[in-house]
Every structure is written in C-alpha cells, then in structure tokens.
Design brief:
heterodimer; A: about 270 residues; mainly alpha; about 65% helix; elongated; disordered C terminus; B: about 600 residues; about 75% helix
Amino acid sequence: MTTPRYLLPVLVGMLAGIAVAVVTVPQRQIDTGREPVTALPGAVSMAGAEAEAVRLAFPGDDGRIARLFSALQQPAWLLRQYEVVEALDEIKPHEIVGLVRYLESSRGEAKDELFTTLVERWFELDPAAARDWALTSSMEWSTVIAWGRADPTGAFEAAIQSDQPWAPSLLSAAMRADDEMDMRPHLQKVRSLPLGPSRDRLLAPLIVAFVQKDPAAAYAAVEELSTASARDQARYDVLRQWAREDPAGVLPVLEQMLLTRELGAMGHAY
Amino acid sequence: MRPLIGMVIAGGSFLIGWSGTRWIAQPHPSHSSISRVTVGAAAPSAAFSSQETTSAGPPKEHPATIRHLLAGPYSQARDHAVAAELLKLSPKEFRAGADEMLALLSEKSGSGMERNVAEAWMDRWLEIDAPGALQFLSRTMLTEEELLAGKSAEAFERLTATPFGGVFRALVRRQPEWTRELLVKLPGGRQRHYFITDLLKEVTKSDTTAAAAYLEAFENGVGRPPAFTGYILGLTSVDLRSAFDEASKEPPGRVRDDMLSLVFTSVGERDLGLMYELLGRLDDPAARRESMAVALQGASVELAVPLIIQEAEKLASSGEWDSKSNPWLELVGSASQTTHARTLADWAVNFAPDQDRRMFAQIARNWARKDPAAFQVWLTANTTSLGAAAVAKLAEPLASVAAWDVAAARDWAETLPAGPLRDQARFQVAVRGSEGDLEYAAAAYEPLATTDTDGTLAGQLASILALQDCAAAGDWALQQPLPPARVAALREVGAAWTGRDPVAATDWLGKLPPGSERDAAVTAYASIVARADPEGAAKWAELVTAPAERTKVAVDVYRTWCRENPAAARAWFRSLEGLDEGAVPLFQRQLR
C-alpha cells in the first residue's frame, strides 16, 4: 500500500527518469523501415510563385505538404523520388485526395511525376476511394499506370467490367505490374465475356502478356479473337514478343508463315 | 530508515520513468501506418527487405546490392532503396566500386532507369568526393575518344536517355567550370552541341551572371546556337521575364521563334497570368498568336479551354485569325484528348472564321481516337446541324468509330438520314480492315469521289483494295476523277505492291506516265526499297520531278542509305538538284 508520504519521491523519481530519457534518447525517427541517410544534395525550397500557390491551395499546412513540393526541386530524378517518398510518409491518407485534385490542374514534368506517385500511394492505402476517383477522372495514362502498379487485381477487375477505351491499357498495366500473377483465371474470365470487339480488346493484351509464360499457347490463342484484323494484329504482337524472348524458338513459326504467305501479321516484306 | 526507503522508491520510479520513455521512443513496426504499407505492400519481393538494403557490407558489395535491386520489378520502395544505397556510400566506397558500377549501368543500358541511377550516383559522388569522381570520369567516360569516336550528332541527341546522359547532367550541375574547360578542348562540331546546351542550362539555373559569361565564351562559332538554347532554357526555370527579354532580342527568324516557344511553354506551365503581359510586348501579330497557342498548350486544360475559345474569337474579330496556324491546331488537338472535347467540338464546328473547319477536324480526329463511343453520340446529336465543310473532315474520325465496333457502326450508319454523312459512315464501315466488303466500298466511294478533294478516302480504299489485287487497285486508282485522289491512291498502291512483290512493282512503275501520280508511286516504292537496295532506290528517286516530293524521297533514301554507306549516301545527296531546300531538314541542309 503506498502511503501519501511516499507519493513525492515516486513523482520526483519518475519525472526525473522521464526528463533524463527525453534528453538522452536520440530524436525518434519515424519508422520507415529504411535507414536514415545524410541530407540530400541539391534540394532547395520552392521558388516564390510556386510556394505561394501551394500555400494558397493548402492554407492549413503545417509544413508537410510544402516539404512534398519542395522535394520536386531536387534536380536528380532518383534522389527526387527518394525525397518525395520520404515526404509522402508524413502525408495522411485523407490528405492525398486534395493533393491529387490540386495536381490535376497543374502542369510540369516534376508535378506529373508527383501526380503518378501520389495516385499510386492512394491505391495502396485506400484502393476503394482511389478507384472511385479514377473512374470519374479522365483516366490519364499516369492514372492507368499507377493503378496497374499499386493494385493489379483491382485494376484487372475494373478493366474487364468496362468498355471504355482505357480498359485494355489498364489490363496491360496490371499484367505488367505483376509478373507472378497467375494468368489462367484471368484468361478464363475474359474468355467468358460475350464474343465481340470489347472481348477482343481485352483478350489481345492478355494473350501478348502470356507469351512470357507459354509462347506457343499464346500464339494458338490468337485464333480466339473474333475478327481477322484483330487476329493479324495480335499475331504480330505475339511474334514480336516471342522473338524478343526466344529468337530461335520463333523461327519455325515464321518459316511456316512465309511458306503459307500469311503475311498480314508480318507487315511488309521489308 | 525512512529516507532510505524514500530514496529506493525514488530510484525505482526514476528507472520506470526512464525505461518507459525509452521504450516509447524506440521505433515500432506499427508506428506509422503509411510507412508500414509502403514497405510491406509496395515491396513485392525479398530483394527489398530492410536487412539487404541497409546492410553496410564491404565496398564492393554496394554495386551488387544495386544490381540486385534493379533486377526486381519497379516499385516506389525499390527506387527508394536504390537511392538510399547510393546515399550511404563513402568516398572510399565510391572509388572502390566505380568500375563495377559503370559496368552495371552499361550492361543494363536501355530502360531509362540506368540513366536515373547514373545521375544520382555521380551527383552524390561529386558532392562528397569531387576529385575522386573527376579522376574516374577523366579515365573512363570523358576521354576524347569516348566523347567523340563513332558518335554521330543523332547518337548524341539520344545520349540523354543513357547512363552517360545521366552522368553528364550531374557533372554540369556539380562541376560547371570543369565541364566548360573540357568542352572548350573538344574539337568543334555538332557533337559538342548536346553538351553545351546542357551546361548552359544548368549554369543559368544556378547563377545567371555566370551564365552570361559562359554564353560569351561560346558566342563565336558553332557553339553559339546550342549555348543560347541552354541559356534560355535555364532562364525559363528561374526568371520568365528575363528569358522573354533575351529571346525577343534575337533578330526575327527561326532561332527567335524557337526560343519564344520555349519561353511561352514555361509561361503556360508555371505562370499563365504573365502571358498577356509578355504577349503585349510582341509587335508581330503572328508571333503573338503563335506564342499564345504555345502558352495555352503548356497550361492545364481546365484553364486553357475557356481561353482557347475566348482568344480565338478575339483574334477573329480583330482580323488576326489564321486557320492554318499549326500551334493552334496542335493546341486544340491536345485539349480534345480530355473530357473537354465536347465543349471544343460544339464551339469549333460553328466557328465561322475557320472556313475549312481545320480545328474541328483536329478535335474530331483526336476525340474519336480517344473515345469513339462518345464521339459517335455527339455526331448523332449533331447530324442535321453539321455543314458540308465539317462533314468533309470526318473520314478519319468515322474510321475510328468503325474500328471500335464495326457491327455497331454499321447499324448506326443506317440510322442516319440520307446525305454525305451517311455516305461517309457507310464507306468507313465498308473499308474497315481486310474484312470489309470491297465491292460495296468501291461503290460507296462513287458518290464521295467528287468531294474527296485531298484524296484521303481514295488512299484509304486503295490500300484495302491492294491487299487483294495490286494491279486491279492500280487500275482503279488511275480511273479516279480528281488528281489528288489519284495521287493518294497510287501512293498507297505503290507502297503495298513494293512490300509484296518489288519486281512486279518496278514493271508497273515503268509503265506509269510521268507526272504527279507517278511521283507519288515512285516515292512510296523508293522509300521502302531503300531498306534493301539503297543504290537502286536512289536511281528511282531521281525520276521524281516535283520538288517537294523529290525532297521527301531523297531524304528518306539518304537516311536509310547512311546506315549502310554514309560516304556514298552523302555524295549522292549532295549531287541532287531540284530539291526544295526549305523542306530539307536542318541536318541534311548542313550537308549540302
């Protein structure tokens, strides 16, 4: 039982312990899972007009958003990405939407890079919200790439449920982002769509992506496309990819094509 | 006893307070949800585990770690880990691993990532150990042989995408004076241009006074144009008004136009409010009009679209509108690839000063390519209000609609009221791909033949007919009533026949009467056959008589021949007469 007369030494001792610990313990690092490094070279603050624009757009910013935009001043691309990712660690998920909207109406190479990085992070943190935003956006190329990279499964599902022009690109981005993805169930899903141009547009990039796993099967799958022009284009894409991966393996197929003069898929003879 | 107990209690409390605070202060795996997601979800393989990316092994292991990281798929975590690895290196480690790093970057050359790694690698090394880095560069990448041997001007332009380009970019930022001395020592010539532009750009960004002195150093001789370009590029990053002042001091001509274009692109990107002030300082109405288009193209589309409409109307009412202005066509073309396409189409289709509806054509082409279904909906709503000039521009957009879903497009075409739009739609459906009904397509062309004034439709149909029978396609082409239609059709037949059977194509070409139709077919033939027989193609190219067509085929053949035998190609190109010198590209002009 602690009596009141021992309360003072308890309090004094504990406060002293806390004070000593605070003074002696090094400044806590936010755990990024990454080792801290020395200050980067070349990073400077934003220029006047841009700093003012960011300040006006984010009036309550406590410096974290300004840091994110300052990171864009780093001239070397890889180091800029490094700084951006470090600064992004301090941005809260709900703040990303405002940043994305701000960048949608901005231009410039570095801002375009930041836009892609932010969208990618958003898809990692909150895929549902990011998806809702993406589907109402003009679905720029950077959005397609970021979605495919950060959320390949969600991107694939969105692609096969859409007949918009961006759907095949989104499907390709998802395939490229995940080398380990088992493509057979995806192929099955697309095969089950009604025959027609929408199905062709989705099936063709899947077939081309399948070349890496099984080029002969991919080449055979070209016949599943519904029109001759779609088959010609896909055959050409498959052969080109196959030739990159296995030049010797594709030769017998090419020889056979030359013998039968199936030149549609090969373009001009020269 | 009591004081002792009090001291013991105080000591115990001290320990509890101290250790509790330390425990709270130490990193926890769950401390930051954002970083946890970053490292966990975004690092797709064991390659990016913190153990591997933060281990400080012996010097030679750093390139190996970077090699390991680069072999993995892209992720933000991967790029972060590579940068972190580079930032940890000491001068000693940079020196020890430099050769291996260079070999690594060279072997992976091509993806673009190597350039970025090279840039960061050299940037960091130059920052912490400039003597070591410069010594290494002098020994390896920056010897005169390496800089100039076997590299054409075109190859140097491509260097920006290579590890060398990345290293050079870091070098000019960190060691501008050292770089300037290196460049001064290099033999003059086009090869230096790339380096000089980059140097001046970076120097100007950090010190405009020093940049003026650098510019002076390159003022005389061939170094001036690239130095000035770099100077203006650098100024656009730091002071748009000064960039404008310097660019507008140039005498009228291509250099001034190019520099103003650089300035106004940056104005659009960074400070559209400055556009009117700077435009007000240009006396020439054409320069004002073109510069405005360039600035608006640099701006965000939300800001640009209302201004495009407002300013085009103003230009029209002041008599300064020019329907053939390429920057304006490019501007509306890029803006129409966004959600604003409908707004632009609604406006451009009724913009009376653009009598040929060139802007509408550009908008329709890009919109239909990007979103054919939405464009088709717009066409349906505007069927009765489209004028003849607008309908005449719909060949390519309707081709995009037909390509998207030919069966749906066929059904839609039949719902249209009789008239040119339905004729065009039916024609595009008919020629769609090799599955088109070619007899039907040829018949569908007949009512359109007299309005096919630029030969777009004839060329399209001829390319499809030639897939089945080149000779018949050639006969069909020669029967067309309008000369541009014959030229366009014969160009397509020439290309198709040459690709399929060059010998038969030669016989056919020999029988064609001289004139613009034969010029078109021969140009197509020679441009293709040059890839296999440049000397033979050159002989055919000499038969082309019209200066513009002759120039086109001559440049095509020259470029192809250069890969095989540059000396023979140059000699032939120099000997040619009757070229349109204004249409010869800059590089080839210098040859002559």
